[in-house]
Amino acid sequence: MLALVWSAVAAGCASSPYRESLDAWTRAEDFYQLTEVTSAARATLLAEPFRRAYVEEYTEVFALTPEQHDALLEAEVEDARGGWTVVIALYTSDPEWNDLDPRREMWSVRLEGPNGWLPVSRVRPLVRDNPSWRRFYPYFAAHYRLYELRFERGVGPEPLARPGEELTLVVAGAPGQMRLAWRAP
């Protein structure tokens, strides 16, 4: 009987296209002062390949119709073309420090690339007790807050980063400094 339970658990943990995409587009960094972690970040760049895998997983979880699937996919692809979006789970040793709202002036948040940097244009806290966030972003733990960060692509002639070049999310302030980097899709 125990073998049956273990095989069912192992099957539930098996890799899936969504999980592989999540792993490929997620970065993590902890900031230490002496031996204490004062801040930690787990962040996923919502690049178009990730969004496509997300739509498939979302369709399965919420039993979407083909029409709903297609509409969601179209919206996600369009959103990816308009700017960079990052979902970040942030931990701080003092809960009062866990506020990425630029008006609080506690953290500097920007996206850097070979051709400059972009300030965060929107910080949206995500509802903590929504079980969907733990399903889609399993690194979102009890002492973290989850945010969606948006960076506009800009209208300049040069993109922030071309495919294959490095994009770096910088989250810096008195509680810590974290740099999470991806290769632009």
Detailed description of the structure:
31% of the residues lie in helices and 37% in strands. A hairpin with a 2-residue loop joins strand 8 and strand 9. The protein contains five helices and nine strands, in the order ααββααββββαβββ. By secondary structure, the protein is of the alpha+beta class. Helix 2 (17-25) packs antiparallel against helix 3. It has a domain at 15-98 and 122-158. The protein has helices at 2-12, 17-25, 48-62, 66-82, 131-136, and strands at 26-33, 36-45, 83-92, 107-113, 116-119, 122-125, 144-152, 166-173, 176-183. It has a five-stranded antiparallel β-sheet.
What's the quick description here?
The chain has 185 residues and is of the alpha+beta class. It has helices at 2-12, 17-25, 48-62, 66-82, 131-136, and strands at residues 26-33, 36-45, 83-92, 107-113, 116-119, 122-125, 144-152, 166-173, 176-183. A hairpin with a 2-residue loop joins strand 1 and strand 2 (36-45).
Give the strand content.
35-45%
Give the structural class: alpha+beta
Put simply, the count of helices is 5
Main beta sheet: strand number and arrangement? 5 strands, antiparallel
Overall residue-averaged pLDDT value: 90
- Could you say which overall geometry the principal axes of the C-alpha atoms support? globular
CA radius of gyration is 18 Å
Termini separation comes to 46 Å
What is the count of β-strands?
A: 9
Please estimate the helix content.
25-40%
Widest β-sheet, arrangement of strands: 1-2-3-7-6
